Amino acid sequence: TREVHLAQRPTGRPTAETFALVEADLPELAEGQVLVRTTAMSVDPYMRPRMNDVKSYVPPFQLGAPLDGGAVGEVMASRSPDRSVGDVVLHGLGWREHAVVDAVRTTRVDTSLAPAQAYLGALGMPGLTAYVGLTAVAELAEGDRVFVSGAAGAVGSLAVQMARLLGASQVVGSAGSAAKVTRLRELGVDAAFDYHDGPVAEQLAAAAPEGIDLYFDNVGGEHLEAAIASARQGGRIALCGAISQYDAAEARGPRNMFSAIGKGLTLRGFIVGTYAHLQPEFAQRMAGWLADGSIQTDETVVHGLENAPDAFIGMLGGQNTGKMIVALG
Ligand code: NDP
């Protein structure tokens, strides 16, 4: 079987040299384990900071060892009474064609609701992130004017649609290309802009002339500064991600933080795992939204484990619309 290892710690944007495609032997199944043939794996922004040798909320990837991450696949062999051959499961050992994993660390997924890979996107971690960021973290209230950055990505494209369904009166999104801006309009945002077209603060002020009550931050840096500038009194900011800063040697913070004082802003960071208790509520609502067509899901699919590094690098560079997925044979 084949797996992808971390060959070098990247400085700045990862390159092909960051990764190594390695032939490996599968270990024997121990009691309680299953063998999964992975059919799709996720590449996610948080994997970039994990390539640095720094302490964070998840331990760094180890050099010369396989990367890991969300994946779905089919159980090929089982030494657990709880999993049968043929079960379709979500697990955490992506970046390899086969995974030997403890059955308790797998979750069976319902493929009658959506294809398995939807559990890496809309029905999975990105979907829950959008949901808890808007609700539990930023406390979206009826009538809020909402701004979402990274709005055409996995989390963002769900957040803009959910914001509307949860009562926002105006939804503004930013993304990195004209095609993504067009897609955002199709998804029902009131205004969208390409952040390359001019200063974010100016474009946001033009898109939301009356200001914003809630900002869902996927990007950090200049976007966060612009959102603070456009925030209304009592505004709430969910700090979800800061992708503009992940490759940076020296991160840039908002220079106008002092204005959060007078405006009484709340800036709250969060990690989706902390909100796992909202998973059942989220799963039920999301299933309803998907079933009645109120939420549309976009995916960009790259084929083959050997192309997973390119998919990851491409995702960091904005080549995905919606969730970036690597489909394995
Ligand atoms: P996306 O699908 O949004 O993919 C990443 C996108 O980031 C790219 O498509 C690109 O789109 C955009 N991007 C890259 N560089 C920049 C830049 N310099 N400025 C602005 N945009 C940039 O990824 P996810 O939806 O999986 O994740 C979105 C964010 O949410 C990330 O910051 C991630 O770390 C965070 N996250 C946080 C979680 C948590 O628990 N707090 C959980 C999951 C995700 P474009 O073309 O628009 O530039």
TrEMBL record:
Residues 15-326 form the Enoyl reductase (ER) domain. Residues 1-14 are annotated as: Disordered. SMART domains: PKS_ER (SM00829). Keywords: Oxidoreductase. GO terms for molecular function: oxidoreductase activity, acting on the CH-CH group of donors, NAD or NADP as acceptor. The keyword Isomerase does not apply. InterPro entries: ADH-like_C, ADH_N_2, ER, GroES-like_sf, MDR_fam, NAD(P)-bd_dom_sf. It comes from the Bacteria. The keyword Oxidoreductase applies. SUPFAM superfamilies: GroES-like, NAD(P)-binding Rossmann-fold domains. This is NADP-dependent oxidoreductase. It comes from Actinotalea soli.
